[in-house]
Amino acid sequence: MKHLEYADKICKAAMREGFDWAEITVRNSEELCVRVANSSVCRENVLRDNQTISITACLEGRRGSIKLPGSMHDRVADKLGVLHKQLSAQPVDKEFVMPHSEPGTSHHDLTSGDFLETYGPETLYPALEQALSTVRNTGMRSTGYIEAKQGETAIITSNGTQLTVRDHGISSGFTVDHPDTLGASGSSQESGVCMNRNLVAELVSRTVEEACHTADLNKTTNSVEAGDYTVVLHPRAVADIMRTMLMYRMFDRRRIDENQTYLSSAKDTLRFPAGLTLAQSAELKVPEIDYREVNVNGNLKTCDDLHLLRNGKIQDLHTSAYWAQKTSGLETYGPYASPPVTMSATSEDGFAGGIHQDLDALI
Known about the structure:
Layout: H1 2-17, E1 21-37, E2 40-58, E3 63-69, H2 76-89, E4 104-109, H3 115-119, H4 121-137, E5 141-157, E6 161-177, E7 185-193, H5 197-219, H6 235-247, H7 253-257, H8 263-266, E8 276-280, E9 283-286, E10 289-292, E11 306-310, E12 313-314, H9 321-327, E13 341-345, H10 355-362
Parallel strand pairs: 4-6
Antiparallel strand pairs: 1-2, 1-5, 2-3, 5-6, 6-7, 8-11, 8-13, 9-10, 11-12
Helix pairs in contact: 1-2, 4-5
């Protein structure tokens, strides 16, 4: 793989610069982007190419990173010198831990077929036109986007780790509104990985239908009397709550151990819905999709699956390299690194089954 050879060349240059350790990531990606305004395609970028070069290096108890576009490949040597000077001038990090990725070569192909066959114009445009015609026929209007991406990533470290990854996926987001009703709008977003062309069409249709459904609800809302109500949350609302908890690192073992978070005192008593599961797994099986991620964290350390929540109870926690060393524990995935955090819930909780009916009734 030419990207791996290029990353190796940069890694050797970094070590000649005098670093103690280096990790080089070269990623080439292609994007197919379509934009929608007033229920019609208004802009498209067909297979926009992009390359990025990321360099992480360690020097005498210090660690730093730089990222530059592939168009600046002739400036890599200069940037390595700048990074070396910056790290030399920094104070030693008292919590520094030298990365210990496992030497060896591995390749992960996360794709499920040819990119253009799965996400190309012959698939996207008919699916998009069918969804938008539904919006136009109801008298509403829509804005939104579809983005399909594929990438090849090569990672190499100075201690002999070589990793190559191929991946592709799609995301879409739409906002639908009633022009004659102020504020009656609805939004929805969807994303998918390793999909086939039939699932792509379903994803686009589902995204637009969800936005239309919400806009119709907002058009017919009525005020309710003051009082206490039992509210059944939409899965997206639950996902937003979980995302906020991750953003504030509430599942961070160190923060809990050092009494820096609410969970320090409430970890064993905080109530979540009984069937709610929050996990990070290198293998995710859902209907018609068998998705496998790379089971390494940001330090290229092989990690076991995490179940932050299992059946509504906190089980696992995120542990950094420093805290794992200090507490003789195991380093884990981070909250924002691959594999992604996934959320699921059993239908008995009222999350997954009949939720729209309950929410509509409340409104």
